[in-house]
Amino acid sequence: MLEELKQKVYEANMALPKYNLVTFTWGNVSAIDREKGLFVIKPSGVDYDKLLPSDMVVMDLNGNKIEGGYNPSSDTPTHMELYKAYPEIGGIVHTHSPWATSWAQAGRGIPCYGTTHADYFYGEIPCARSLTPEEINSAYEKNTGLVIIETVSAKNVMSVPGILCNNHGPFTWGTDAANAVHNAVVLEEIAKMSYRTETLNPAIKPAPQVLQDKHYLRKHGTGAYYGQK
Amino acid sequence: MLEELKQKVYEANMALPKYNLVTFTWGNVSAIDREKGLFVIKPSGVDYDKLLPSDMVVMDLNGNKIEGGYNPSSDTPTHMELYKAYPEIGGIVHTHSPWATSWAQAGRGIPCYGTTHADYFYGEIPCARSLTPEEINSAYEKNTGLVIIETVSAKNVMSVPGILCNNHGPFTWGTDAANAVHNAVVLEEIAKMSYRTETLNPAIKPAPQVLQDKHYLRKHGTGAYYGQK
Amino acid sequence: MLEELKQKVYEANMALPKYNLVTFTWGNVSAIDREKGLFVIKPSGVDYDKLLPSDMVVMDLNGNKIEGGYNPSSDTPTHMELYKAYPEIGGIVHTHSPWATSWAQAGRGIPCYGTTHADYFYGEIPCARSLTPEEINSAYEKNTGLVIIETVSAKNVMSVPGILCNNHGPFTWGTDAANAVHNAVVLEEIAKMSYRTETLNPAIKPAPQVLQDKHYLRKHGTGAYYGQK
Amino acid sequence: MLEELKQKVYEANMALPKYNLVTFTWGNVSAIDREKGLFVIKPSGVDYDKLLPSDMVVMDLNGNKIEGGYNPSSDTPTHMELYKAYPEIGGIVHTHSPWATSWAQAGRGIPCYGTTHADYFYGEIPCARSLTPEEINSAYEKNTGLVIIETVSAKNVMSVPGILCNNHGPFTWGTDAANAVHNAVVLEEIAKMSYRTETLNPAIKPAPQVLQDKHYLRKHGTGAYYGQK
């Protein structure tokens, strides 16, 4: 079942090592079929060079495994909460990509210092609060999703398609699996350049709002004129 | 038309990912045929691995598309202003290369700390001022070109063949497309080494002027003796 | 003799340049056959591109060469002390991998700043004390092993499968040669991210103990639920 | 003439891009035939991917070109002074390798922070003083050599086989061309790790002298026991 979606999720997972976003098995991608209410996710702890499209696990939104010979990623409950909260999300990526993870470990959101950021993320990429001991010790992965939702809440979830989990690492999302991976690559690049920006100018402030607006809206929404649209 | 120039511009664009100067489609190269008064530029938002020489867009210096199935790069008006202002420029590159972009985001020009810099850029590589809200909200890409020209103005444009746009990224130029790419690679390398120089010695001053003169003039002008000239 | 183990140790040594953990010959891997009481180790100073499985040297735990045409690694006495002290250890890696070595040269242990660390190392990765002049000038490599043991002593050796030797570099270990290499890769990645974490937030504290417990125990021990176990 | 030496010098030059020590043509290697009193050096400004063994230029120690269709490297007088001053030197490398050049631009020698350094360089890798305006404006490349010699003077030239030229970049040397390249790779790796060591511990002091002695003498001199000697 869902062979086409499995293939796409497989390819999106394989893109993670290609883009240097993961070491060993430290990442996972999923995507959802909204009509069927089922999502497809990477199995837990399987090496990328042994992974096959048919290894992808099919889950429903109640956390039941519908198909698959392997256990799903241990982060599956996080993905599930995001799919339930945001109908706009079609694909989700989690990695420990080193630059974004360094910001997450520092407990800091990434300010918007320039147009590369503003082209994809409208404003700061937030860092979620730490989970409480109670949240960690019961349904940790589900609570990780709930804290992401708590942080995103007041915003349009697609205008800032990613977040940092404190002391952990990034999650990104998108319209589908490939788009979520695209945003994971962008986040890593932004995290790298923002680190260096701060070293070069410790007093730096975020880019002017008018410039952020210009770049974000040049690529998104009804007035967009970037690309071949 | 301009098949040979399209081929060269295509190759120069393809050199950007080869030299690790771009992620996804974050860059563009153009070159001009001064006799015909036409320039050739990369289309907007097309993946590098799908790009063909025949996809290059031909523009005139009034901003009219003369030939091409795609929209030209959204940065086309910036290129056009530079071609109009400086008859010496034969090719232009824009990237979001990470080291140069970090300086641009920090709002800082790159001081000349050594001979690598002085071999190619005669003095500091300037960072242009921020655009005003009015400049951003009307003809943004054209105004980006005008602010570059305002910054370069008093200098020989070819003696410092590149600039940083505040909160944005670098533009470089040269005698043709390949030479502009060459300067983009040099700028990125200089940006990296200058960052590290400042970390190692926060009190560092620019290299002595006499050394800058020696190295720049060893490679440029009538007294040059570097290479096979 | 021990052809299978030689092959595994060979492959583990060849993985070091593949994972960018060594320059030239700056690393060595060994593994032990506990039943026979013999361990197999890379020869000293032989280029990786000339290395053959049959070049691996067989040693006993008294430091006698049992088989092999080459001298064993000069670090052999360090490996031997660790095998003698810890029956749990099946394989050992020494490298001068650049990020971990930078911490070792700084004389600092690596605090646990996040889940990537906690997934593999339970608490800080310690930096051993400097050897005394006497320890350096007599049986230096053996004393390096003894100082590692002194530092590890109070802990479960497998819960923190690596250490930094002051002004020198890392040693890691594992259940076998491949697992010890795996831990060397993880250590290097953690060393890189922890460096950047401190730059981004100089006041950063280690991750909460409850989060460290959660992640370590999610992957290790009787309650583990990561992967396909 | 000197076909074998040309081949070795060619291969050593081609190793520079392989080891990521040069961008474009920013480096050169030479080697000397002491019996004939002639040295072979890379031509100036020729791309690495067009270079042939037969392009290598043969020079005598008075600066006369003995054979070769190209101009020799513009740094030839620096190489020549070093060959004249130090009969032990068989090969010389100059690069603008980014980490070593960052220290050179910062005007700082590289302290010995650990065993990786001590295995190859006995003590600090010095940074030569700036040239005076007079030295720069007359026989600049020759004077670069003389200032290197002034800095090295009191030491055994082979025990610290490299130096940083202020605001410029590194020179390394060795018993032959390949050995000089080897030392250039080591220098770059040391420069990288020493930078990070200082960031991690701004108060760090050089490694204890007794440890430096141990490691240097473990690999060099009559008591050496590293490798297969």
TrEMBL record, chains A, B, C, D:
Keywords for this protein? Arabinose catabolism, Carbohydrate metabolism, Isomerase, Metal-binding, Zinc
Q: Does the keyword Magnesium apply?
A: no
Job description of the protein = Involved in the degradation of L-arabinose. Catalyzes the interconversion of L-ribulose 5-phosphate (LRu5P) and D-xylulose 5-phosphate (D-Xu5P) via a retroaldol/aldol mechanism (carbon-carbon bond cleavage analogous to a class II aldolase reaction).
Q: What GO molecular function annotations does the UniProt record carry, in alphabetical order?
A: aldehyde-lyase activity; L-ribulose-phosphate 4-epimerase activity; metal ion binding
Q: Name one Pfam family in it.
A: Aldolase_II
Biological pathway: Carbohydrate degradation; L-arabinose degradation via L-ribulose; D-xylulose 5-phosphate from L-arabinose (bacterial route): step 3/3
User: Its GO CC terms?
Assistant: cytosol
| Keyword flag Nucleotide-binding | no
What is the recorded name of this protein?
L-ribulose-5-phosphate 4-epimerase
The record's Gene Ontology biological-process terms are: arabinose catabolic process
Q: Which cofactors is this protein said to need? A: Zn(2+)
Enzyme Commission (EC) number: 5.1.3.4
CDD domains, sorted: Aldolase_II
Ranges for the Class II aldolase/adducin N-terminal domain?
A: 7-195
Q: Which reactions does this protein catalyse?
A: L-ribulose 5-phosphate = D-xylulose 5-phosphate
